[in-house]
Amino acid sequence: MATVEALVRDIASPQDLQVALADGKPVVLHFWATWCEPCKQMDAVLAQLAADLLGIACMRLEAEAVDDVTIQYGVTTVPYFIFLRGGEVVDRLEGADPPALTAKATALARGGSVATSSGTAAASAKVAAAAAGGGDSGATDSGGVFGRIKYLLSTWPVVVFMKGSSDAPRCGFSGRVVEALNKLAVAFKSVDILQDEEIRQGLKEYSNWPTYPQLYVKGELVGGCDIVTEMVGTGELEALFRDKLGPEYQAVAAAAVGGAATAAAEAPAPAAVPVPVPVPVPASTADSAASVRERIKALLSGPQPVMLFMKGTPEAPRCGFSRRVVEALQAESLEFSSFDILQDEEIRQGLKEYSNWPTYPQLYVRGELVGGCDIVTEMRANGELGSTVREMVHRMDVP
């Protein structure tokens, strides 16, 4: 099958959408987000439909990047699908549901007629295979997932299942575990559960531990962020590594991950190479970046320990993702300050670099990044949001 990019048109602005709609074809428009794994699965389904249903145009739009269109159509979650004919909305679909998307897209292509049961079933089977990566079987059973998890845990002595990677954590809790391991100079295998929904869900059952990150040593669960942080403070984490991996635990972990430390020690001295001459940064540019960072730090150190950088205000959110975070915080009776990044382009761009987090909203507690909409929503659903934020506030208030 051709790639998603070849079959599904990307919409980057309201003007792009107007041009696309002027073509006259019925349109299936997918609102997606970079951090949402189900969106990637539904992209594969949409690409298959684009190949099979030539009477419709399939498009996708990054919901957080093209705010005006997201707000125009009242989209507050991803994945989300809008079905348009003659520029008018004729149907909607929320969530990752390949059979429903297939049925609705087929009906749209047929001018509104209901797809036959046999046709829909065949198409559903086809797109289900596409969503699964083209395999012959359906969803992998828990035994298959457990086998993958056991392989990871048996191959590397130290494994962190986290949001993001060791180089670019996608939540504050994952970042703190990475920081704790780096402090002890322990190399580890990181598994980005945002890129693997099967592992993300299966590991919760495997470990009987509902949240992420999760740290394992020699196949045994150590715990999540709070436990790891506490063990670092008491010296218990280093003692655990010595007990499980031996006194040379750092070398053992490094060798397992890739042998980088051993190879570097044994390798001959490299030949001399020219030292690149750094390109000087204009003083005005450097001063401006430093000024933005200081402004961000001042906002994060304000009197209210909980700060939300969002689009719009709590009273009038300008995107569905910001609205959902506001609603989650209010439902937990958490007081917070907010900053409208739509009113300040310097902060909007500077905060992405400051936090190494590319999207909005962003929630902070005492200057520490908690995460964005997906993380806050998941914490709320798991009953962890209120207790976690209050615990962070309390811990950071204690000298």
TrEMBL record:
<dbReference type="Pfam" id="PF00085">
    <property type="entry name" value="Thioredoxin"/>
</dbReference>
<dbReference type="GO" id="GO:0005829">
    <property type="term" value="C:cytosol"/>
</dbReference>
<dbReference type="InterPro" id="IPR013766">
    <property type="entry name" value="Thioredoxin_domain"/>
</dbReference>
<dbReference type="InterPro" id="IPR036249">
    <property type="entry name" value="Thioredoxin-like_sf"/>
</dbReference>
<dbReference type="GO" id="GO:0051536">
    <property type="term" value="F:iron-sulfur cluster binding"/>
</dbReference>
<dbReference type="GO" id="GO:0006879">
    <property type="term" value="P:intracellular iron ion homeostasis"/>
</dbReference>
<dbReference type="InterPro" id="IPR033658">
    <property type="entry name" value="GRX_PICOT-like"/>
</dbReference>
<dbReference type="GO" id="GO:0046872">
    <property type="term" value="F:metal ion binding"/>
</dbReference>
<keyword id="KW-0408">Iron</keyword>
<comment type="similarity">
    <text>Belongs to the glutaredoxin family. CGFS subfamily.</text>
</comment>
<dbReference type="InterPro" id="IPR004480">
    <property type="entry name" value="Monothiol_GRX-rel"/>
</dbReference>
<keyword id="KW-0479">Metal-binding</keyword>
<dbReference type="GO" id="GO:0005634">
    <property type="term" value="C:nucleus"/>
</dbReference>
<keyword id="KW-0411">Iron-sulfur</keyword>
<protein>
    <recommendedName>
        <fullName>Thioredoxin domain-containing protein</fullName>
    </recommendedName>
</protein>
<feature type="domain" description="Thioredoxin">
    <location>
        <begin position="1"/>
        <end position="110"/>
    </location>
</feature>
<dbReference type="InterPro" id="IPR002109">
    <property type="entry name" value="Glutaredoxin"/>
</dbReference>
<dbReference type="InterPro" id="IPR017937">
    <property type="entry name" value="Thioredoxin_CS"/>
</dbReference>
<dbReference type="Pfam" id="PF00462">
    <property type="entry name" value="Glutaredoxin"/>
</dbReference>
